[in-house]
Specification:
Elements: H1 7-17, H2 22-28, H3 33-41, H4 47-57, H5 73-130
Helix pairs in contact: 1-3, 2-3
């Protein structure tokens, strides 16, 4: 896998963002300003130096160099997504059951109202017949 990440450019960018100079970084990591200038021109840097610089700049350079260690991150995300989908489906099923239950309650209430209306109409008819 080819990696087009330029470590030196990233160091320059971070120094600029943090309003620091190459001299500041050099003093912090026990390196001459000239060596820091040299590093910012390089596409790659030895691991120990990169580790020192990363700690000093509070930046994780390793994220630009992923390693396939057999635990495929995409698979882990997929498993989490599956779990979320399962949880979502469970919640949807519970909500649908509640909706169905409320639908039955509404139907029962409608039937009760129709029965009451019929009873009232019968009573009104009975009163009218008595007159």
């Amino acid at each position: 896998m080819e990696n087009n990440f330029h470590v030196g450019s990233k160091i320059e960018q971070l120094l600029e963002e943090q309003h620091r100079t190459k001299r500041d970084l050099g003093l912090d990591i026990d390196m001459s300003q000239g060596n820091v200038v040299y590093l910012t021109k390089r596409e790659s840097i030895d691991v120990q130096t990169l580790h020192k610089i990363g700690n000093n700049l509070k930046y994780n350079f390793w994220k630009h160099f992923p390693i396939d260690d057999g635990t495929n991150a995409a698979t882990l995300v997929t498993e989490r997504e599956k779990q979320l989908i399962t949880e979502k489906d469970k919640v949807i099923a519970e909500l649908n059951a509640k909706i169905a239950e409320q639908g039955k309650v509404i139907e029962d209430l409608k039937q009760n109202l129709v029965k009451q209306e019929n009873d009232f109409l019968k009573e009104i008819n009975s009163m009218l017949k008595k007159k």
